[in-house]
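Q: Could you write out the predicted structure for this multi-component system? I'm mainly interested in how the pieces pack against one another.
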Amino acid sequence: MGADMTEGVLLEWLVHPGDTVRKGDIVAVVDTAKAAVEVECFEGGVVDRLLVTEGTRVPVGTPLATIRTAPSTATGIATKPGPPQEQAPTPSPTTARTAGAGRTRADEKEREAGQRPAEPGAVSHLVTSPLVRRMARRYHIDTDTVPGTGTGGRITRADIEHTAALKDIRAAPVERIRGAAPRLRISPLARRLAGDLAVDPTALVGTGPGGAINASDVRRAAPHPAPSVEPMDRNAAMRATIAAAMARSKREVPHYYLTHTIDLSAALAWLHDRNLELPVSGRLVPAVLLLKAAARAAVAVPALNGFWVDGSYHAAADVHLGVAISLRGGGLIAPALHDASSADLATLMADLRDLVIRTRAGRLRASELADATMTVSNLGDQGIESIIGVIYPPQVALVGFGAILERPWAVNGLLGVRPTVVASLSGDHRATDGATGARYLKTLERLLQTPEEL
Amino acid sequence: MKTEQTTEILLGVLHEVAPDADLSALAADADLRESLELDSLDFLRVVELLSEQTGHDIREDEYPRLSTFGSAVEFLSGG
């Protein structure tokens, strides 16, 4: 269920005892604090016993069901991510655990593996669970008319949803289950895109296997965004997105961290003089100098400006600086400031203000959410000294700035007090080594000593 | 400018920049940036709006006078 999850509620069984299941079949849906997760089984066989009833809250590690893999053996179904091989065939009956095989929707490839095509001719009037029956009633759907795509031709919740979508009666709000969004048959990529593009996935008709909504369905709908997502859903979706990205980062990216305290007296004196001559609307904030310097340093050290994809590093052609923007009311988005290295300071300031306003208003462009090449997290306004950030995959570096604080500073053997900032670099050790990161921070420092050239 | 008038303008500006904040709970001597969680861009927006609405040209070195609600009202009222 994700390494940081401790428990979940079993929402729905998609199989019953006696069903034949194949490896990769989704057998249950578990609701967690962050997102609904589908539980896949990694062994084919026949479902023997369901050990947990729907609606039960279970800690991670709880056996869910047993599967007979051969006439006299059984193996488990579980609910925690892990390589399939962890669920190796067991020669003797073992119980399923909530600790081995569930995959979050955020995991695209894995999810795709779980999407079963409809079995040809498999029309069944079996309804798999009370939940599905309730759904059918809610949508006024006669289950006899629904082709089941579930195991053994059973009608799954997705089938009901698909049928409902086809009937175009999805306008009626679905009763929220424990505050979670209705679980659609939707690929994780599509779900993310839907969030990014402000598309309401419940309004889409899926064209993927089993009526699943895939990314192209969402993209098709994108020119007509339906930003009528309820705030709660947005927050929940955002948490889920952050959770997925950050968990993936900590799971996959071997971070190294460097920090460097930089003297900002030259930069701030220059900024102050400049701002004195200008009306409020033309004034720069120190953060803009830091962002510009960060972008310029990224040009100088291209090994940190790009993506780690499929086992190798791909440098980006331009610097699109992701700016971590906290939202009033919680949450975080890091949209991209496009071409931050080439824009002049006034333009960058205007772009930043515009980006922050639109981020908080939920009016970001898709490209801004997709193409940041490196991210800067500036927590200086919160008054903390430094931030050691988590890289946003597939990016390979994150730059952090703490608050600009006056610190004792030794210059030419004398002690003075200077405004300083602690800059940090979190680097992906697969892509670069500490020496590269060090070069980046030293470049950043050098650039900030000549603000007029930024 | 009268104190009541500046108070009203300041409340309006703060409400615009931080619409989620409960301004009635704001103490006169509380740090505005901290209690309303204003970042530097938010604060710049506050300065900008106050400048527009009061006709008071607020220089950067006068920002500290806007640090609390009380000091801001005093400053904008010409104190």
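A: Regarding packing and overall arrangement: The mean pLDDT of chain B is 89.
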